[in-house]
Amino acid sequence: MARIGGAAITGTDEASAKNVRDQIARSSDADFAANARAMFGTMFGDPKRAEPVIAQVIKSDKKAYATAIYELFTIDIRAHLPKITTPVLVLVADGPFADDLQKQLVPIPHHENKLLPRTRHFVMYDDPKATFAAIDAFLAAHPK
Length: 144
Known about the structure:
Elements: H1 6-10, H2 14-26, H3 29-41, H4 47-59, H5 62-74, E1 88-93, H6 98-104, E2 111-116, H7 123-126, H8 128-141
Parallel strand pairs: 1-2
Helix pairs in contact: 2-5, 3-4
């Protein structure tokens, strides 16, 4: 997964991204766990489904996690999107960034956006049936 122009979506500049990275890397284990629960807890429609993912995040290496967050907000792949030649399926969560994300995908020559209603960031947890149906239909339409 790659964020397409994270700064463009979130308004995060490089200095702010560095600050977030450094705060995460320096946080205590308790603060890291609390922040992971607060952040990831909002990304699921069903809090029970969030728990196993949050447990794994909390076990993560803080420095690696912090670096990944920084890179999500500073690496912009938009210029490379027109070079993608493979058909792409993007499962889009139903939320405030859905329209912006779909607009940013327009440069991909062979892409299909599938908005999954009533889902949050982790669409595969919120609606596994619709997720698998979308993937199955996409693969059937693109057998190679």
